[in-house]
Amino acid sequence: MNAPIRISPLFDVQAPLGPKWSHVDAMQTPASFGSADGAKLALAGIGDVSFRRRAGVKGPGAAAALAELGIATPERPNSFLRMACGTLVARMGRTEFMVEDAAGGTRTAQMHAQTPGAGVYPVPRFDAALVVTGERAIELFRQSCAFDFSSLVLPEQPLVMTSMVGVGVTVVAIDDPSGPYYRVWCDGTYGGYLWATLVEVASDLGGGAVGLEALGRLAQ
Amino acid sequence: MKLMTCPINGSRPVSEFVYWGEIRPMPDAATCSDDEWADYVFNRNGAPGVKKEWWCHTPSNTWFIAERDTEKDKVLRTYLHGEDE
Amino acid sequence: MPWRLLRFGLSKSHPEPRMFTAHDKLKPSYDVVIIGGGGHGLASAYYLGRDHGITNVAVLEKGYIGGGNTGRNTTIIRSNYLTPEGVKFYDKSVDLWKDLSEEFDLNLFYSTRGHFTLAHTDSAMRTMRWRAEVNKHYGISSEVVGPEEVKRQAPQIDLSCGGHAPIMGALYHAPGAVARHDAVAWGYGRGADQRGAEIHQQTAVTGIEVKGGKVVGVHTTKGFISTNKVICAVAGFTPRITDMVGIKTPIFVHPLQAMVSEPMKPWLDTILVSGSLHIYVSQSARGELVMGASLDPYEVQSTRSTLDFPEGLAAHLLDMFPFLSHAKVVRQWAGMADMTPDFAPIMGKTAIEGFYLDSGWGTWGFKATPVCGKTMAWTVANDTPHELITGFSLDRFRNYSLTGEKGAASVGH
Fold it and tell me: From CA C402, how far away is CA C389, in angstroms rounded?
C-alpha cells in the first residue's frame, strides 16, 4: 500500500511527458523532465509544488484564530510572510489568509483541527501551485497577464490577485539571492490548462516544465 | 483596454471584473404588495446617468461599489460597501 | 445606364425622384406619431397606410433613417425559435420577407443561405432537438444534423474547434437568410412616403404630453405636435422615452458589437452560429465576413466599441477557421441592445392610453422588422393587441407570466 494518496491537479497534463516521478508529502510529483531542466530553469522554468499542504481561513476573527495557533500574519492586505519555520502565510484582502506548510510542517493540520470560533470561516483549498522562475519570467507574465509584475517592490513581499490566461490566480513575488521568483496558485480544476499554457509560452522563451531536482530549494 | 480600480487590488483591466447591476433597495417581501415585488424583481432604470453599481474583482472575489456614468462609460469612483462618506 | 446618368448629371431639376419627400415643417397634428425612423418604425408607418388607410402619420427620427440598430445588425433572418409564441411570430416574418423586394421594387439582396446553430456539448444537443421538434410542429424547416453535414457545407471548418470545443452536431434551418439591412429601412420608408406618411429626420422628441392617462401630444426639437397615438420604436433609447411618460419597464441596455473582415472570394455560403464560442458569422454579397458575438458584459447607453471585442471574437473565429489567421478586420461598431429578462420583446398597449411600445428587441430585432410593422399597425389601428403579440405585452412581468425565449439570439444566453 504505497500508492500515493494525493493526486496533483496537474497529473493528467504532466503524465504524457513521461517525467521521472517522486513522492513528496504523499503526492506523486515530477522530479525531472530530463537533462535540460537546469537550462530551462535559468530562462523560464515552471515547476509543480501542488504537494505542499495548505489551508485557508477568512472572516473578522481569522487573524486572531491564526495567532492562537502561533501563526504570524502579514500586516497589510495583499502581502505575504515566511515564518522562521518556513511556513508561508499569505494575506489576501483584509480578512482572508492562506497558510502553506514547509516540508514536514504541521501548521495546516493544526488549522484543520481547530474548532472555528465566531467570525472564523475555514476555506478548503484545492489549488494547483506553481513555481515560475528564470530571467525571462517577467516576459512570460507579459504574454499571459495584464498585470505588470515588474512594478512590484520585492522587499514589501507583495501578493497579487489577477487573471492569467483567463484564470484567476494568486501570485507572490519572492526576493531571492539568485534573483526573484514567483509562486502562483489557482483553482485546481483550471490548473492543467494554466500549466500547459504557461509551459507552451515558456518553451518559446527557451524554458519549460522543470522537476523538483532542478528546482531544489525554490520548491520550498 | 479599459481599466477599473478595485479598492483593494488597485487598477486592473475591466476583464478581471464582473458587473452585477445597479444597487436597488429591496422592499420588505413580507409586507409589500405583489406589484411592488414585481417592480423590484423585473423593472430596471435603463436610462443613462451616474449610477451606483455592484462590481466584483473576480480573482480576489472583492465586491465593491462603482459610481459610473453609464452613457460615457466613465467610472467616477469606487469604494467598499459601507465606506461611502 | 450611362445616358440616364448623363441626363441626371446635366439636369438642374433632378429628373430622378428622391427616395422620400423632404418636409420642412411638422404639421400641427397627426393621427399617429411614430418615434424612431428605423426599420420597425418605418414598417409600422408603411402598414398603417397600406393595410389600414391611416396616412396622416409622422415618423420622427433624431438622426437619419436606418442609422440605429437597423443599420448595425448582422442581417440574419430566421425563425427557428424555441417558444410557440416566438416560432409563429418569426415564421410570419420570414414569409413577409420573401415578397418584400417585389413589393418595394427595390433589391434587398434577400439571400437564403441555410443557418447552422452549432452544438458543442450534450446539453446543447438536447436544446437543439427540443427546438427542432417545436419548429417542426409549426411546420418550419428545422432539423438536427451531424458534424459531417456542417463539414459538407463549410469544408474549411475545424470540427474540433482547436481541440477544446468539438462540434457534436447542429440545428440546421434551411430558410435562414441574409438581406441588405439599410435597403429595408429605405424600402419601407419610400413605401410609407408614397402613401402619405411624413418622415422627419433630425427631429428629436423632447417630451410627451399626457393628460388624464391619455397621450395628447409630443414635444420635439421642431415644435409641438398634437396626437392621440404614439408608437415608440427606438430600441436602446426606449428607457429615455418611457421615462417621459412615467412607465417603468424591465429593459436594460447593453452594447452589442459586430465587425467585418476585408472582402475575400466567396467561400462561406452558409450562416454559422456557435453559442459556446460566442460567435456568428456569414459572408456578405461583397465578400466581407460579417461577425458578431455576445452582448457587452455591462450596461452602457452609447455606441462605443472596444478592443476587447475583436480580440475575443477573433480568437474564437480562429478556433473554427484557423486559415483566417491572416484576414484583416476593416470595421467594427456597436448598437445599443434593449434587453428584457425573458429574451422576448415588449410590444403593444401600455397603461397610458395611446402610447404603444415596440421595444425589448435587443439582439433579435432585424429579422422581425416586417411582422413588427404589420402587427404594430394592426394594434394601433384597432387599439387591441394583434393575436401574434399578445404574449409580448408589458403586463406579463407584473403578472409573473414570462415568455422565456431562450432561442432568441443563440449567442450569449
Answer: 13
The pLDDT score that the predictor gives to residue C10 is 72
CATH topology of domain B1-25+49-85: Folate-binding fold (3.30.2270)
| C-alpha torsion sign, points C85, C86, C87, C90 | positive
pLDDT of residue A3: 57
Does the beta-carbon distance from A92 to B13 stay under 8 Å? no
> Structural domain boundaries of chain B?
1-25+49-85
Kindly tell me if the per-residue pLDDT of C155 is higher than 70: yes
Comparing CA positions, the residue from C64, C75, C115, C65 lying closest to residue C288 is: C75
Of the candidates C301, C307, C400, which has its C-beta nearest B71's C-beta?
C301
Which three cell numbers mark A213? 531536482
ipTM of the complex: 0.94
Tell me which chain B residues have a C-beta less than 8 angstroms from the C-beta of C341.
Answer: 42
Q: Which CATH class is domain A11-51+126-210?
A: alpha beta
Number of domains within chain C? 1
What average pLDDT is seen over chain B? 94
Looking at residue C177, what is its pLDDT? Answer: 93
Q: Quick check: C72 and C335 in contact, CB under 8 A?
A: yes
A-chain residues near B83 (CB < 8 A): none
CATH architecture of the domain with residue range A54-123: 2-Layer Sandwich (3.30)
Name the minimum distance, in Å, from the CA of B70 to any CA of chain C.
5
Partner chains of A (3+ C-beta pairs under 8 Å) = B
- Mutation target among A163, A186, A190 for the B interface, most CBs of B within 10 A: A163
